[in-house]
């Protein structure tokens, strides 16, 4: 419907609306000031100097997609590149493909962290652009390292290589094992695109969840095989149980809030045949919601769909869910995000959206509950329909233009890192905002499947 002048608000109401909008602006914290030209120049020069090496590293990862926990080649490429760039490499974790690259200048400074992801998806390769995330992390660490040295800033830059984001909860495990304990703040970036025209070039959403919490589960159905023609009554059909549960979830979906998601697949067996009643079937599901609590409640409701299907068909079931794969909603730190948005606009004319959210999920959400941190989203050119998790996006993530944009984002992250390490007032403001957020939301408890059941 086209709007017409008759739809306009009466002038006194409009005046009241304008007044309210103006008063709300007072609640927004002032835009933080920027870093010195000296810091900015050191960051930009250092990142420009490694651009070709970063492109080679990016392609080495992109062209050899590896799945969660098995990112062996990517890990080797990253460790080798970071060693050459003058970082100290360690891996104090239980995950063979994790790493920590550290550089310290002076004594007694704060610690700023970056995260590099580098896992791919089955069949579609680097369809989430984690090859780009990997080099954004490295380049940002290089830029911040250069600024510490050139401007004599005491502090430590720590790049954490985080495996298994597309499942497995690499960061959840690394948090538990203490790799984030000494960080004062942390940042990463994530590419997106292919969703159609957007009025912004990037995002750093604040004021609520920037992405949804996510929990997963698997259910195995055990029935009994039989001849499908001669004696079907002798069988207990595990596939029927999975299909019945799948259908029940589709009905449940009608009653969910718009921000909730539930999605999954039926996985069978290579032994399935059309003339044998299937004795085995498996479903693998995710639930998503604005908070971990709501996400676990939804998981309970979804599991009930499959429990009832098992009962109806006479199958027995095994439910499994890993606490490490419960991803928290992402809560970007406000001063870090606003400072990044301001800097990107000033330096590059980029419009960074600080309102809104994505209904995807990330284990970086758990990091945002552990230390003041933020994730910068950025758009890479990708045809409409070729968004994240499609083969088209994997192709886009390997293009020179995507690399160029990634290096620009790395500059922004490094500058914010330098600001945090060199500006005590800004660091204090960041910590204060984090403490306020934690006071409002409470600690993120390690949820378990049984807790999920107790929630209703
Ligand atoms: Zn993804
Ligand atoms: Zn991703």
Automatic annotation (TrEMBL):
Molecular function terms from GO: dipeptidase activity
Family: Belongs to the peptidase M20A family.
Organism: Kwoniella shandongensis
Stored Gene3D superfamilies: 3.30.70.360, Zn peptidases (3.40.630.10)
InterPro entries in the cross-refs: Amidohydrolase (IPR017439), Bact_exopeptidase_dim_dom (IPR036264), Peptidase_M20 (IPR002933), Peptidase_M20/M20A_hydrolases (IPR052030), Peptidase_M20_dimer (IPR011650), Xaa-Arg_dipeptidase (IPR017144)
Superkingdom assignment: Eukaryota
Pfam families associated with the record: M20_dimer, Peptidase_M20
Protein's name according to its UniProt entry: Peptidase M20 domain-containing protein 2
């Amino acid at each position: 419907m086209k709007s017409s002048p008759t739809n306009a608000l009466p002038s006194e109401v409009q005046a009241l609306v304008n007044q309210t909008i103006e008063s709300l602006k007072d609640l927004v914290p002032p835009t933080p000031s920027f870093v010195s030209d000296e810091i900015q120049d050191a960051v930009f020069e250092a990142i420009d100097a490694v651009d070709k090496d970063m492109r080679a590293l990016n392609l080495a990862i992109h062209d050899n997609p590896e799945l969660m926990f098995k990112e062996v080649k990517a890990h080797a490429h990253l460790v080798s590149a970071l060693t050459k760039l003058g970082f100290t490499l360690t891996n104090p974790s239980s995950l063979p493909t994790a790493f920590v690259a550290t550089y310290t200048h002076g004594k007694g400074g704060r610690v700023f962290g970056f995260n590099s992801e580098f896992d791919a998806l089955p069949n579609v390769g680097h369809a989430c652009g984690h090859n780009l995330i990997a080099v954004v992390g490295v380049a940002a660490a290089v830029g911040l390292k250069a600024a510490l040295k050139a401007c004599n800033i005491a502090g430590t830059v720590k790049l954490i290589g985080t495996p298994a984001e597309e499942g497995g909860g690499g960061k959840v495990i690394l948090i538990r094992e203490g790799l984030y304990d000494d960080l004062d703040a942390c940042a990463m970036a994530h590419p997106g695109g292919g969703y159609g025209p957007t009025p912004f070039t990037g995002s750093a959403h604040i004021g609520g969840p920037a992405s949804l919490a996510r929990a997963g589960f698997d259910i195995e159905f055990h029935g009994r095989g039989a001849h499908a023609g001669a004696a079907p009554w002798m069988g207990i059909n595990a596939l029927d149980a999975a299909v019945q549960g799948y259908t029940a979830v589709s009905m449940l979906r009608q009653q969910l809030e718009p921000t909730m998601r539930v999605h999954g697949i039926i996985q069978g067996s290579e032994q399935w045949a059309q003339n044998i009643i299937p004795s085995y079937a498996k479903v693998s599901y995710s639930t998503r919601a604005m908070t971990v609590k709501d996400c676990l409640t939804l998981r309970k409701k979804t599991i009930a769909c499959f429990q009832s299907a098992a009962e109806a068909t006479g199958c027995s079931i095994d439910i499994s869910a890993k606490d490490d794969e419960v991803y928290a909603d992402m809560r970007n730190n406000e001063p870090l995000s606003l400072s990044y948005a301001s800097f990107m606009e000033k330096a590059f004319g980029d419009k960074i959206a600080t309102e809104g959210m994505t209904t995807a999920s990330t284990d970086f959400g758990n990091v945002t509950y552990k230390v003041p941190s933020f994730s910068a989203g950025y758009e890479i050119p990708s045809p409409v329909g070729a968004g994240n998790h499609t083969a088209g996006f994997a192709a886009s993530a390997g293009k020179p233009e995507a690399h160029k944009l990634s290096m620009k984002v790395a500059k922004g992250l490094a500058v914010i890192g330098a600001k945090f390490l060199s500006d005590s007032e800004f660091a204090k403001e960041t910590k204060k905002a984090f403490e306020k957020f934690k006071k409002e939301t409470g600690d993120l408890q390690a949820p378990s499947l049984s807790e999920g059941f107790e929630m209703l």
